[in-house]
Amino acid sequence: MAAYVERRPIAPVVGRAVAWVLVIAAAALAARYGYARYTASKAASAAPQYFLQPATVGPVVETVSGSGTFEPATTTSVAPLVAGTVSQVDVQVGQSVARGQTLFQMTDTAGLAQQVSAAQAALDAAQKQLQQMEDPASTVDPRTVTMDQLQVQQAQLTLQEAQTNLQQAQAAAAAAAAVTAPAAGTVTAVGVTSGQQVTAGTVIATLQPAGAPFVTVSVPQDELPYLPVGTTATITASTLQATTTGTVSAIGQAASNSSSSTAASASSRSGTSSGASSPTASGLYPVTLTLASSGSSLPAGADVTVTFQPSGNPPAADTWSDGGTVAYPASIALSAAQAGTVGSLAADGAAVQAGQQVATVTPATTPAQVASDEAAVAQDQNSLQQAQLTLSEAQSPSPSSAAAIAAQQDAVAVAQDNLQTAQQNLADLTVTAPVAGIVQAVSVEPGTQMRAGSAAVTLQAAGPLLAQVDVDELEIAKVKAGQTATVTVPAFPTRTFQATVTGIAPTATTQFGVSYYAVALAVQGLPPDLRAGMTLNASILIQQVASALRVPAWAVTTFGSGGTGLVQEMRGGRPTPVPVSLGVTSSQWDQVLSGLTAGQRVVAGDVAAANTSTGLGAFRFLAGAGGAVRRGGAFVGRG
How confident is the model at residue 176, as a pLDDT? Predict the structure, then answer.
């Protein structure tokens, strides 16, 4: 693709010079017309005389001429890659620079040095992690192991809850939202009737579960490792003079982070185990103990003392006590999972077993809870796996896999690249020449605030020059890429160069109301001492006929865009118009396709006094004198 240099034409092309010929011709016509009126009486009786030119056979060559200059083929605009304040400018306009030579320098205003420090810190951390992966010895922390065990237990409970939710959702969807008893018990109230429309959450019936009483106590987090599910305890109700046993059946979520609550709970202990730490502000966890059958005589709400016999790992040496309250399974509200119509319904007071259907609710729409619960189970399974993996790594650290080490090595490589990038950005505060060349423009000075990408210095790259000429808008349609041209350079008057058209500018430049288009030329054999800015003239070959019937161009009057015209043939002593068809035309010769034969003579000019009847007589006088002829609405100079 050809390159173009934006500039104003340095001179009109030869084809456009006809505008000046028009002015001169008009002046000559006016002067000649006055002279013709003056000499009319004397010349009226004189017969006009004409130049006659025979139609000959020879070459006809059509060219388009243009003038222009040699311009740099490429210029490079140099901009900083980072922001900063210019502190020093090292070049000036016209100076030759080598590739890599410093153009200007900037101070750090974007924190690039801090970025280097941060990148170095990230690299150090990545390298340390890689070292730990390759040699994980002495990384076991007992406290970390204990906390990771609790995380695994919590993840298991969460997963169990999610799985229960999923099973319930699946059962509800499969059984058309059947309402079932979650435990054995007695239906104590029925709040709907068969056939009734209900919404999601509507209570269908109330169930009083059957089951043993239980006690809930609050213990601090540091005691939990010694109270796994299954730990036994002695339950004493002092006011009732009753004693039974219980077993830890569940550990709930922390209910409080208050240190005062922790201390209050601890105040009821009878002793502190050697394996348990003193109360802290870490929060209290509800621990549920299921009472033995002998405890069924204890009423709900009775205050009891729970004396633990801790186990865990490592086992505690002592026992301790906490206060609790006796409770029985709470009544359960059986609700519709989603909107629908009540079908079958259990009677009030009916005894049901766990899982037994109490009512059916035909859903109005398909339940969407199953998908949500499946996603929750998958997420909780992943969380459990992560917790188990973390615990395993904390308990038995081992060298990472080759793939993991390779991945961390890649991370180290990325950190090294980031450091190199940060260091390069810092180094980019010194802006250098990307190519060798000559400084054309410098738009910065010390103190200039620069943004990344803002042009600062323009370089004329060393290399071949681009030849381009300006062609008149009336002629540009004839010029095509690939056409040959002859080039002359005034600075080398004795030489002629051959060239090829490589491209045409898509837009024009305007001078004195005339539009010109830049045409790029590839010129062969240019001398090494050619300089940018030197002028050139080009004659672009449009078309040619080696052997054509031709007449002088000034003997032909054309119409419109050409193709047809008139010549004057002497018949009976007078010029007679003869229509002709034209082929290739030039400033000197016009090819005649039909209308004439070789040897036929046509009028090429008037050598006698000008015809005094109209301005056309003066026109013929100018034509005969070798001036200009009217051609297609414009005057064209003779070739």
Answer: 56
